[in-house]
Every structure is written in C-alpha cells, then in structure tokens.
Queue: 2 jobs
Job 1
Amino acid sequence: MEILLLITIVIIAIAFINFKDYLSNPQKRQQFQTTIQDNQIQEEFQEYEDPYKNLSKESKIKKSQYGVMVGLLAKLAQSDGKICELEKELIESTIEDIAQSLTLQSAMNQKEEILEILHSIFQNTTESVEELSQAYADLTKGQYKSRLKLVEYLLALAYADKVLSENEREVILDVAAYLEIENDDFNKMYDAFVEFYSKEDIKQDYKEACKVLGVSEEADLKEIKTKYKALVREYHPDILHHKGLEESIIKTSTAKLQEINAAYEIIEQYKKEIGEK
C-alpha cells in the first residue's frame, strides 16, 4: 500500500514539474499548440473532397474562369446573328492566348487538345448570359480591374464592325451589372467607344493599304489574309496577363486594329474587282 502511494506521489510530482515547465516556456507551449493546429488542418484536409476531382478535362476548363470567358464571348457573338472578319480574328486570338496559358499551367504539350475544347465551348455554349456572368463574378472576387477589362474587351468586340447593335449592348450591360462594374467606369468606357467610332473613317487608297499591311501590291489574297491575321494577332488586346489594365483598349489596340482592318477591306475589294480570288 505504501509503495503504491509512493508511486502515485512520484507520478503526480513529475506531471506537476512538466506542467510548470510548459507554463514557463512559451516556445514549448507554442510548439505544442502548433502541433495541435497542424493535426486539425491535416484532419480537415483529409476530409476535404475536390469538387473537380471526377470532372473531365473539358468540364474542368468549361467551369474555369477562362472557360466562362469563352462562353461570354460566344454569347456576344451570337447576340446579333453575325460576326465580321475582325471580330472573328480577335476572338480566335483570345482563344489562342487562353489555350497557351492553360498549356503552360498544365506543364504538358496539350495545346491542340485544349484549343479543340475551347472551340467546342465557343460553339456549343447553352448557358444564359446571366448564368455565365454570375459564374465569372464568383470566380473573380476581388479582381475588379480584370472584370473591368473584360467588359471593355466586350465593347471592343461588339464595335469591331463599327456598329453596336441593341442586342450586343444588352449583353454587355447584363455582364457589367453582374460583375458589379461602377456606373461611372462603364459610362467612361462606353463614351470613349462612341466618340472613337463617331469619327470619319481613315481614307486609304490601294497603295496606302498595302503599306499598312506591309505587303506588295502584287501579293495574292492568300498572302494578304495571312499577313492580316498576323497583324490582328500582334495588336489584339491582351486581357489574360494583366497587361495594360490601366490603359484604354482604344489607345493600345483598337485604333491600330481599325487601320489594319480598313486596309484589308480596301485590298480585298480591289482584288475582287479585278477578278482575283
């Protein structure tokens, strides 16, 4: 009995000494608390299930910020039932940018497959403008400037044929509303495009148009179109890599693109008049 009592006293004394050491040593107390927190985080992580885990690659891209962006581009292009050459090339350049970005993120050579998926999203989007806008808003919380740049890009696309249709305007207004774009910011962008496109078109003759595109006057339509696409690619707005967020798209891109497009249309018309195909 005395031995048991002695053992109990020793155990209590050791525990008391360890407890005093714990209280008097902040470093050990912190280590102990950190261990508990780490264990809790590990348990929470083990319980977490990735909602995208069982999705196909196409579904993952479609639900991503880039996929939703392509869906919005599609809804805008579909809204007035027509798409001009410049708008088509701008959209294609943006899809190329997205494919390149996703390829780099995946660290695998999958660009052609990703391009195919993005084109499928563009051609087969069934979600409404409201659904896509809300999804984009959810994916870009705290990224106001990026949201602003997307809306400005939609205006640039809609004005590619120099006319903003009522349907295009409604789509852009809906997107801006869901992305919570301030009225002053939207009006500033909108007024800038109205002012730019209210100016008279730049007058070019055939020779001047060839100089703008950097082609010879004897170049055939195939060569001219290849050069046109390359120039659109060079000057199209970059809305993915946060370049020029503070600058107007009109200043950095639109003015040059309209000059290029006007030159292409003049050359194309001339070639058709002389019977060249």
Note: Residues 57-197 form one domain.
Job 2
Amino acid sequence: MAKEILDILMEMRSKGEPYAVATVVETVGSVSAKTGSKAVISHKGMVIGGWVGGGCAESTCCDAALESIKSGQTSIIEINLDDEMLGAGMPCGGNMRVYIEPVMLKPTLWIMGHGRVAESLCLLGDLVGLQVVVNDPIADLDHFPNASHIITDDILYEQLLPAEDDFVVIATQHKGDHESMKQALSSKASYIGLVASRKRSRLVLEYIQQEGFTESNIERIMTPSGLDLGARTPEEIALCVIAEIVMVRRHGSGMHMRDKLNMETKNHGQLTNKK
C-alpha cells in the first residue's frame, strides 16, 4: 500500500495537478479503516488510490478534500459512522478522525531577462515559494541556481506559457521586451510586470497599443513594476517587485501593518459603539 501511494503521489506531481491526502488518525468502535490508512483524492473529488474506508467514509472525505483544495488549508474531520445524518447514510458503526492535507501547485514566476535584477528575482521568488522559470539566451545555473527551469533557445518567447495563477516579470533590458510582452498579454497570467525606465516603459506601451491590444489588456501591465519602497540597488528593485507579487498572490493591501491594525481597531470600535 505504501508503495502504491508513493507511486500515485509521484504521478500527481508530474501531472502538475492539485490533490489532497486523507489520513486516518484515530478510530473508535467498528471501523473498517485502520489508523494510518491513507487515500489520495483528486481535485475532482475522486479517490484515485489508497483507502480510508468504504462508502460510509469515502464521500465525506472527498467532500472535505475538495474544500481543503479550494481553501489551501489543512483540516481534521470527524466522521460519526453511527449517525446516518452525519455519516454517509449507511449504518457502519464507530467513529473516525481523518486529517486532510491539500497539496497545491506552486505558481510559476516567469523571468524574462538576465542581470542582477533578474538574478535577485529568481532568488527571492524561490524563497517565497514560487517555481521559477528563466527565459534568456545567456542564462545559466551559475547565475540562476534557484531556477526550476532555464530556457535559452526561445528568442520569440513562444515557450512563455504562464497559467492563470502565474506571474511574469520582463526585465530584458530592451532586448525582447516587445515580443515577450505580447506573449504575456496573450495569457491569463495574474501578474505582468515590466522592469524598465519610464521612457522605455512608455515605448513598450505604445507598441502594444499599436499591435491592437485593448485598453483593459494594457492596464494589466504593471510598470514601473513593484511597490514603492524607495529602492535604488538592483536587489532592492527585485525586492519591490516580489513584494508586489506577494501582495497580488495573497490579496494584500500594501499598507503598513501598523496602519492596517489601527484602521481595523478603529472600525471595530465604531461597530461596537453602533451596537
């Protein structure tokens, strides 16, 4: 069973699909599954390997797995198999507790370009839990040791294929920013940043407009890219960009934490007074 589960986990990772692992952590009474039993549940809510019990427990675990995959949070569910309402409608007997752990895909940070900004983006992107792909003709592992994948033979950026939850940062130093931007805008990437001077940014935006992209598409481009942290060095610029990406990914406000806390405290006080 352990080998079967391991093989399935490896297969799911290679497919790049989210899934959840259900593990029985406690049983009481007449329960068919043993403590430690595991099942792998797909993002479609189906058991694809392992076993945590029959129909009495399986549907409950699958429902909980879907919720965990959706929220990205682990959970522990208690299944009362004596109760037909709380169980799955079958009088199995006993109780069990099951730990549900979602295994989420890492979003990908696509970096177009080389240089100190790009290298720092790669390092910081990896540190905040992103898979990093670098696309540049002269990129190598010596300069991008944290990259998951390096592309060096794609001058037209045809391999720039970000998914909906991915992030794209173009830091090509004027070499390929037009082509890579067109490709990025053709995707559903959740973030598209351009690291460039104001003059170069304006030229790229004008080019994109001339290529027929709509105003709503052009508004997706974050340029200058990054939060205003007063950055001066390439490393600081990269930090600003990664901070903005984290804000987008986690739906943050970009406020000072102190100011946010003060605002929340003030709002809570106003609500209390109204009551």
Note: The two ends are 57 Å apart (CA to CA).
